[in-house]
Amino acid sequence: MSSDILAFIGPGLAEGLAAVGSTLGIYIAISAGIPVISEDPAQRGRVFALAFLPATQTLVYGFLYMLMSYSAFLPSLLKKYSSVPPHIAAAVFGISIFVGLVELYSAYGQGKVCADGAAQLIKTRGAIFGPTVILAAYEELFGILGMVFGIMFMSIITSW
Predict the structure, then answer these.
(1) Which of 10, 46, 109, 125 has the smallest number of Cβ neighbours within 10 A?
(2) What is the tens place of the pLDDT at every residue in 98-157?
(3) Residue-number span of the structural domain to which 89 is assigned
(4) For the domain that residue 81 is a member of, what is the CATH number?
(5) Closest CA relative to residue 102, chosen from 51, 153, 28
(6) Alpha-carbon gap, residue 110 to 104, rounded angstroms
(7) Which are the contacts of 88, defined by CB distance < 8 A and separation ≥ 6?
(8) Nearest-CA neighbor of 69 among 8, 115, 134, 124?
(9) Do 23 and 106 touch, CB atoms closer than 8 A?
(10) Which of 69, 75, 76 is CA-nearest to residue 93?
């Protein structure tokens, strides 16, 4: 029974870590964007967009990993075994920690990139917005890869 608990805590923990990263990333971007909005209210929409980008690690990647784990992978394991074996539960938990940390650091890094871009909006009269979104997409890629690797590893585990 305790191995079931370990397996079922993992995906929720991954989403929780993603939420921490998104929260930090959004905070960092907002902190840089508020002075920009106060100086040039026309930059408001750009600041809003840049500040929201780190949320995708929680709203999409962490959530999709958690949803697939709880709706497909873990039920498949419980159907195969009456209780999740300890070695498989540990693997599920470890993979979930991996996914959560990748999402956390991806969102945090993306927030820093977005903050740096937001801080330069006035100086560049908004011209830095496009390049900032592209640079933030580099950080986003790691969030995507974390989710994909997690789903791939969970698929492999369910075939054990």
Answers:
(1) 125
(2) 999 999 999 999 999 999 999 999 999 999 999 999 999 999 999 999 999 999 999 999
(3) 2-158
(4) 1.20.120.610
(5) 153
(6) 10
(7) 3, 7, 77, 81, 157, 160
(8) 8
(9) no
(10) 69
**How many domains is the chain partitioned into structurally?**
1
* Rounded percentage of the chain residues whose pLDDT exceeds 90: 96
Q: Count the Cβ atoms, other than its own, within 10 Å of residue 104.
A: 26
Alpha helices in the chain (DSSP H): 2-39, 44-52, 56, 63-68, 74-80, 86-119, 129-158
Instruction: Please tell me the predicted confidence (pLDDT) of residue 1.
Output: 58
CA distances from 61 to 35, 56, 146 (A): 30, 7, 8
Where does residue 148 fall: left (phi above 0), alpha (psi -120 to 50 degrees), or beta otherwise?
alpha
